[in-house]
């Protein structure tokens, strides 16, 4: 696997360079579809180089497995809530996919075949990329246990901390921002297929948020699947490794199906 790290893709006035890493096969013939990986961390911590917690013991690692599934993989930065509030991280995620498409030839990417994959807060950003109308549409979206709708979270809920930091105030005090940030409200006809994979006991990203997004997308005729894991917490805690690997395998099969050409 070829790895190219710390490639700048965005510089906004007053902020640090934002960077991304590229993972691709050592031998590559022609262009490959892009898998855009967006990391979690509550819009506040973690790194583009950190894979989901439940996958970090895997050998080969997650990025290599994604490449083996037939993708060029790009993992991108975004500004954290301690640097810039909502919607900065959304803007940065969209900037990344625009830049990747504009530089597709450099990395052997087919810019017409893009799937975005995110987990937790990154799942929100991945879904926002799939729902965006300010970019050329992606071809598929995979979200692991995303936060998608802050209107369902009370201020004293354990899940409220990171969203309130991202919006800059307790959720109950900024109802207009909460409504603006709700992803289900962006559902409309013509969106790409979505795969949501979520545990019912998730205390950090309530499962009902994925239900709401699923139902809103389905009501618009979008191809959407909600894969439910009964009793699983955040990071699929409660699922054994074989179960998590199955979740990942189904995610990759879904992603490949979104970009397979006859």
In a nutshell, what does this entry contain?
Helices cover 32% and strands 22% of the residues. The chain is an alpha/beta fold and 262 residues long.
Q: How widely separated are the two ends?
A: 27 Å
Order of strands side by side in the largest beta sheet? Answer: 1-2-4-3-5-6-7-8
Q: What is the domain tally?
A: 1
In CATH, the architecture is 3-Layer(aba) Sandwich
Stretches where pLDDT is under 50 for at least 5 consecutive residues are none
Per the CATH scheme, the topology name is: Rossmann fold
Please give the share of residues in helix.
Answer: 25-40%
Any idea of the CATH class?
Alpha Beta
For the secondary structure, the number of strands is 8
Q: Judging from the principal axes of the Cα atoms, what is the shape?
A: globular
| Rg of Cα set | 17 Å
Mean pLDDT: 96
What would you call the structural class?
A: alpha/beta
Please work out how many helical segments DSSP would assign.
Answer: 8
Question: Can you offer a commentary on this structure?
Answer:
- The protein is 32% helix and 22% strand.
- The protein has helices at residues 62-68, 88-102, 104-107, 121-131, 161-167, 175-181, 207-219, 241-259, and strands at residues 2-11, 17-24, 32-38, 72-76, 109-119, 140-144, 194-199, 224-229.
- Helix 2 packs across helix 4 (121-131).
- Helix 7 links the parallel strand 7 and strand 8 (224-229).
- It has 8 helices and 8 strands.
- The two termini are 27 Å apart.
- It has a single domain (2-259), classed as Alpha/Beta hydrolase fold, catalytic domain (Rossmann fold, 3-Layer(aba) Sandwich).
- The longest helix is centred in the last third of the chain and has 19 residues, at 241-259.
- The mean pLDDT is 96.
- It is of the alpha/beta class and 262 residues long.
- Strands 1-2-4-3-5-6-7-8 form an 8-stranded mixed sheet, sandwiched between helices.
